[in-house]
Design a protein that fits this description.
It comes from Devosia nitrariae. The chain is 38% helix and 31% strand. By secondary structure, it is of the alpha+beta class. The protein has one domain (2-103): 2-Layer Sandwich (Double Stranded RNA Binding Domain). The protein has a four-stranded mixed sheet. The longest helix is centred in the C-terminal third of the chain and has 25 residues, at 79-103.
Length: 104
């Protein structure tokens, strides 16, 4: 599974952030990694310098093999909280989608 992290101009996408994001996603999707070809994480500070609650947007796109890409978005106050929330949402979505395939 490939992992890609993208950030906007207001969030510094350094190696530490890439490691934290990768670990967060891997811990949430560890049981599904063999069924995914790629995960893309996009982090953006919606309000830029204005601040505020829920202004960090985490969009996660998962590309399951043989299926259409699946995408979720989660807004939160910090980058780490947005990553955790997005990871929970994508796990739930993928568990649901793979469960539907299993029932067919």
């Amino acid at each position: 599974m490939q992992f890609q992290l993208n950030t906007d101009a207001n969030i510094q996408g350094d190696d530490r952030l890439a490691e934290v994001a990768g670990q967060t996603i891997a811990s949430a999707l560890g049981h599904l990694t063999d069924r995914l070809s790629r995960i893309e994480v996009h982090l953006a500070d919606v309000n830029a310098a204005k601040g505020g609650t829920g202004d960090i947007r985490c969009t996660i796109e998962a590309r399951p093999e043989g299926m259409q890409p699946q995408t979720v978005t989660h807004n939160d106050a910090t980058v780490e909280a947005a990553l955790r929330g997005g990871a929970k949402k994508i796990r739930s979505l993928l568990d649901s989608e793979f469960g539907k395939l299993g029932r067919r």
